[in-house]
Amino acid sequence: MSGGHILIVDDDTANIRALASVLEDRHEVRFATSGRRALELASADPPELVLLDVMMPGLDGYAVCRLLKTDPATADVPVIFITSLSSPEEEAFGLETGAVDYVTKPFSPAIVRARVATHLSLRRANRSLKDENEHLEALVRERTRKLAQAQREKMAALRQMVAGVAHEINTPIGVALGSASHLGDRVAAMTERLAANQLRRAELERFLASAGELAALLSGTVARAGEIVRCFKGVAADHGGLRQSIALKPFLEQVTESLRPQWEPPGHRMTVDCPADLRMVSNPAILSAVLEQLVRNALEHAFPAGRHGLVTVGAAASGPETVLLSVADDGAGIAEGSAGRILEPFFTTRRGTGSVGLGLNIVDNLASDRLGGSFTIASRTGGGTLATLHLPARTPPDL
Asked: Which CDD domains match (predicted)?
């Protein structure tokens, strides 16, 4: 153990010299010949341990010990009484005042060295434990702060999501209500004319044509509201399933084949680019949902009407612990000005065609919250878009 900073307090200089000769070869030793001077030295530069005589003029050792223990700067400094008072009652009283040990004169040098070494070790261990506790408390406070911040951000995101859903659903519902009300008024008017025997064939034909248009509008707007609800459910869906070892090439081939009714009729092509032996441990239901959404997004946004394209679903190892899954197309790429917002909920460049703008947001959430990875999407050099999932080769079991 390295030497300590020790303060010897005794009104007898012979006792100070005797103690110093025992300790100064291993420790830094200072001394005081009065209780008042001892308190001044300890307050200015707290020692690691105090060797304190009891019987001194003015402030005796007991009073000095009490005052040391009331000062926050010296409260944790161990005090060892070294005194000629040897009765059990005196020793008990000294310990009650706050001392950690009691050595009687004439003292044994070996005993003094051993007691000093023991209490220095204990003090340093206690200080180390106190520092570690303070460090842990600081970590807990910081963790609590971050959790509170994350909770605030989640609530803000939830409020934004709810507001977006309300706005998106209100539009088709408003159209549907207006259409239904208009259709009801027309039906009432036609019923009155029919009852009055005033309905002409041309009026009936116009009414039927108008009713057909309103019915189509109603059907479309209700379908859009249903699609919004379906996407919103996808944000919080559990998707179920357990982690499994997945052979990725046949898995990706199965995903692309299940989507054939969506990519084959328009004339698009799909390929799988994956090593035959590549595997990962993950939740196949979530992986399938994510990949299907990325393929649908490519088919919906990459190719203008009448243009045929290629979509490639790929997988590759990225080191021993990471797998990259990708969906690439050779289409139009991401529109200028949209890259920074493309993952926002309800952001879409195709709202007029019924796009809700939740698909990529769902993918981003599932990639981080349920698969333990991350998601990026960007235009490819040379044209098209590349969506990439950076995933652990083994999804953590607690996700």
From this structure: HisKA (cd00082), REC_PA4781-like (cd19920)
Q: What is the pLDDT of residue 11?
A: 93
Token representation of residue 139 = 């970590």
Distance CA 196, CA 379 (A): 65
CA dist., res. 149 & res. 143, Å (int) = 10
Residue pLDDT, tens place only, 205-235 = 888 888 888 888 888 777 767 766 665 555 5
Which phi and psi (to 5°) does residue 236 adopt?
-105, 5
**314-333: b (≥16 Cβ within 10 Å) or e:** bbebeeeeebebbbbbbbbb
Q: How far apart are CA 242 and CA 318, in angstroms?
A: 24
Neighbours of 264 (CB within 10 A): 11
The model's pLDDT over 365-399, given as tens digits with 9 standing for 90+, comes to 888 888 999 999 988 877 899 999 999 999 888 76
Residue 241 is predicted with a pLDDT of 59
Name the β-bridge partners of 30. Answer: 7
